[in-house]
Specification:
single chain; alpha/beta; 6-stranded mixed beta sheet; 5-stranded antiparallel beta sheet; 9 helices
């Protein structure tokens, strides 16, 4: 865990345990403190708990132990066998998934304005005005009345990011957002994320794309066996890892000389 003071961390994950049934332990006492403005990329072997971690932070999974704090406030805790999630805190977190999860029967604009209207009670006119500005910012203004099936993979992923931003999140989570894209489309999604980073948006990302990780991350966390194995700047973790387990993983899977 990074040497941080807990009262200044944006996200505090303490002794997190997550099981799927009695025999599958995915997270085994995981600890992470994330500071405001950080862009944390989580890497590791399949089954190591990376995507599960994001789903827990988003409040989509029950946990079996530990706690999460957000902005210095309790967010996710356990009470007996139950997981207690503060729904008001959860509204401050946005997530973008690998396969876009856009509603195919709604236009791009309708995809954007649905959550602000349902969750925040925003007027249709106000939501549409904000949605149009975000689409312009992402180079998608001409696609407002199009449907997801009419967009490329890169365009769909940019719309998914725009939709998450409509709720004005204080933290963005990205789960393998480039893995379903053709290589030539990765750059346009990467540019959107870099633009968000330049504006100070805190992010936690899971990716198998090491070039993406190098370009975007301010910090890389290597998870294996349900715990943090190594944690540091991308040039250190990806280029000169301290732990043998990290070196083996990078050399074997990503063919990056470490």
């Amino acid at each position: 865990m990074n040497a941080t003071t807990t009262n200044s961390a944006l996200v505090e994950i303490n002794d997190l345990h997550k099981n799927y049934g009695p025999n599958v332990q995915v997270l085994k006492g995981l600890n992470i403190d994330m500071m405001p403005g950080e862009r944390v990329v989580v890497i590791g072997p399949s089954g190591g708990g990376k995507s599960t971690l994001l789903r827990v932070v988003m409040g989509l999974e029950q946990i079996q132990g530990g706690s999460l704090r957000f902005g210095g406030k309790p967010y996710i805790t356990t009470k007996g066998s139950k997981t207690v999630i503060d729904s008001e805190v959860r509204k401050k977190i946005g997530m973008v998934f690998q396969h876009y999860t856009l509603f195919p029967h709604l236009s791009i604009m309708e995809n954007l304005i649905l959550a602000p209207r349902k969750v925040n009670g925003e007027s249709r006119a106000s939501a549409r005005e904000r949605g149009q500005k975000i689409l312009e910012r992402f180079g998608l203004a001409a696609k407002a009345d199009a449907y997801p099936s009419q967009l490329s993979g890169g365009q769909k992923q940019r719309v998914a990011i725009a939709r998450a931003l409509m709720l004005d999140p204080k933290l963005m989570l990205f789960d393998e957002v480039t893995s379903a894209l053709d290589p030539e489309l990765v750059a346009e999604v990467e540019q959107v994320i870099l633009n968000l980073a330049a504006q100070g948006m805190p992010m936690m990302m899971v990716t198998h794309d090491m070039w993406f990780a190098r370009n975007v991350a301010s910090r890389v966390i290597f998870c294996a066996g349900g715990v943090v194995v190594e944690d540091g700047p991308p040039e250190q973790v990806l280029g000169d890892p301290v732990e043998e387990r990290t070196r083996e993983f990078i050399n074997r899977v990503f063919h990056i000389k470490a």
